Each structure stands twice: as structure tokens, then as C-alpha cells.
Amino acid sequence: MAKRRFSELRQVHPAVTAESAAAYVASRFEAALYDAPGCRIDLLSMAVTGLGERPFVLVFDYLPVLFQPFFPYEDTRVGPDHPFYWIVRHTLEAPECRAIIVTYRSSTEMLAGFFDSPAIRDKCVFVNPCFSLDETTASPSNPSIRPKEPGDDLVLLFTASRNTADETFYARGGVDVLAAFAVLAEEEPRLRLLLRTPLPRTLGPRLRALVHEHPRIEHYPEPLPWDRYRGLFERADLFLLPGVTAYRNGLVQAMGWGVVPVLSDGAHMAELVEDGETGVIVPGRARRSGLEPGGKCFVQDWTALLQATDGPADPAFFEAFVDALRTLIRSPERLASLQRTNLAADHAYRMSSADLERFAQVLRHALR
User: Are residues 168 and 309 in the same domain?
Assistant: First the structure.
């Protein structure tokens, strides 16, 4: 099987060298040996991990993952001049790939354009994966949702969900969140920060001390049970995500509870949030991850965020982020209007019965 795949990859494109074909086969060989008696297809999350030993359906979320482990995740540059571009393109076009479930609507055209492949476009099916917290999702009539009274705390929420990697804290903009709170807490004594994330080992001493010592920061380093996690959304006014890409579950759940997101313009943010209508999008991060003009080369570089452990990596973006927060803090009517909009929206990016049916149809087709 490995020899056959190696020989096949060598014929894909002149850019695919013997070394690159061998490296790809070696990186997938262990997964290909996994014994799965009785399994007719593989349902793969994020990346193709085998060598085509069974047909598969790929759940695609974010482009750099397709090229792991050949690039550092935080520093990826890939296009038609690279052998792994052609290897991944061939893998997605191959008959073994029965379908590609995309979790953002824009991903279909992005993938098809990036790989210059109508065949990949035809395999893409959008299925929204984001679920509600429970059956008591907030609504305008929910008694737990009340207008702010004068003197009430104004609560910011930052969460890294269950992903505990140090890099995730930085990629989500955790340093910008802490630094912004340090500035704004001096101006607004009602401001409070709910921090649901472990702190990275490399976090600088100034920000680490801020988390441990500031009386208006509540730190939850471990994952929470549903009822306590839901309680964070019930209390929060603003959901902060000044990172390099969208992390959809927490974002969509927050919006369903009337929490107003303040985000960067990172990947997929604008697909989930309408600037000025359901939240605020701050420009300045898109340059760190995305397709270059022309759509044929993907570049991701957020090494500077990993290195900036005690202060913001992008000073101009940080100032704009602080200004956006300050504007909402000082405009309670505007904040309330955005909250009402999100409460009433029954957000379109929640999983629905139609999404479940599309998912089932994909699997039925793959099993034929």
C-alpha cells in the first residue's frame, strides 16, 4: 500500500520529488496501519491522515491543517510551487475522497480556487457544526436576560474552551485581552473579566501577575461543566476574540445569549459576525493568515504573537481594539441594541435539523 501510494504521488506533478512523496507516505503510514474491522469509510477531522486504504469523508475547517506536519502551524506558506500543494490536491480529488464537509460557507470557493479544482468544489457540502448549550438557550423572554442597571458590572469574557495548548492562548489574542483590560479597568471601575483559559507557561510576569492579583479578574483555568460554563454567558456582556482566526463554538454560543462579540478581522470572522449589526470587527489581523491576492498562495505567520508574551504584538491593532471596547463601554444604548439583535436573531450558524440531514446524506452517499 505504501509503495503503491508513493509511486502514485510521484506521477502527480513534476514538483513532487521522491523525498516529498516519501515524507508524505511516512507521515500517514502509522494511521494507515490502524485496524478497523468492519469499517467501510473513515470520517476524518481536519486533515487526511491515512493513505487511501478506505474511502473517506473529510471534515474541513482550516487550510493549514491539511499541510501538517510539513510546516510549523504558526508559520505556513504554501502554493503551487510546493510539492505538498500537489499531493494534498491529488488526495482531495482522488476517488477515495467521497466528500468534503465544510464548516464555513466560504470554504467551498476558497478550496476550489486555491487548488484550481472544480472536482474539489463538487465534493464540498456545507454543514454547520455549532450546537446550542442546551434546550434553554436564551431568548428575549428569558428572565435571566435583563437590561443593565446603572452601577451594574460590565463583564468581558475570554475563553479558550477545551484547547489547552499554549499557542491557542496567543492565537486567540489572549495577550491583547489582558493588556486591554489593564488599560480599561483603570478607566471603568465596573469592568470585570471572566478568563476561561489556562495561562501559557511562557506568559510574561506582568500579565501573569495581573491575572493572579487583580480583584476584578475571575480566572477559570480548567474546563467547566455545562451549567457553570453557561453561567459565564449569562453574566457576560462582551465576548472578546482578537485572534487570527474564528473559534466558532464559543462565539456563536455567546451571541445566542445576547453577548456582543468584539473580534479581529481574522479568518472567517466576518462570516459569523456582521460588523455594526451583531458585533464589532476590528481590522488588523487578516494579514497574519489568509490567501495572498490572486488566491493561489496561502500565508500564515503569527510567530510574532507567540513571541509577544507580555504585551501586544500589533500596537496599531491593539489601540483600535481598546478603542472599540471603550466605545461600547461608554455607549450603553449601543451595547443594549447589539445585545437585543443577537438575542432575537436565533443565530443562523447554529446546527439545525437541515444540517443533520445534509450530514446524513453525505454519509449515505459515501457508503454506496
Answer: yes
190 in Cβ contact with 154 (< 8 Å): yes
State whether 262 and 234 are in the same domain. Answer: yes
Q: What are the angstrom distances between the C-alpha of 71 and each of 46, 74, 134, 179, 350? A: 15, 8, 38, 30, 32
Q: What is the pLDDT of residues 67-94, one digit of tens each?
A: 989 988 888 999 999 999 999 999 999 9
Distances (CA, A) of 53 to 23, 30, 67, 163, 290: 18, 12, 19, 30, 32
How many alpha carbons lie under 13 Å from residue 358 in its C-beta half-sphere?
Answer: 18
Q: What is the mean pLDDT of residues 142-157?
A: 69
Q: How many domains are there within the chain?
A: 2
Rg (CA), the chain: 22
Cell of 181: 483590560
> Does a structural domain hold residue 164?
yes
At 115, is the pLDDT very low, low, confident or very high (cuts 50, 70, 90)? very high
The pTM of the full predicted model, rounded to 2 decimals, is 0.89
Cell (9 digits) for 281: 470587527
| 177 in the same domain as 57 | no
296 near 114, Cβ under 8 Å?
A: yes
110: nearest Cα among 286, 268, 282: 268
What is the model's pLDDT at position 95?
94
* Structure confidence by residue, pLDDT tens digits, 205-216: 999 999 999 999
Between 99 and 72, whose confidence is greater? Answer: 99
d(CA 303, CA 223): 27
